[in-house]
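Possible regression after last week's pipeline update?

I re-ran a chain I had predicted before the update to compare outputs. Posting the input and the new output here so someone can diff against the archived version. Not blocking, just want to make sure nothing changed silently.
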Amino acid sequence: MNIKAIQLQLSSDDVTQILGIALDDDGERALDFIKAVLAKKVEKALQRH
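New output (post-update):
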């Protein structure tokens, strides 16, 4: 996989989840979000280029 800078589009639900995680200081929820949402978006963005 070719690693390079990318831009991600976050839905309003993604933003709500991120803010909720930050307010709750929930490490497990943060890791779940990274794996389920962010990592998939990063992989998809890297495949397009």
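Follow-up from reviewer: compared with the archived run. The two ends are 11 Å apart (CA to CA). Marking as no regression found.
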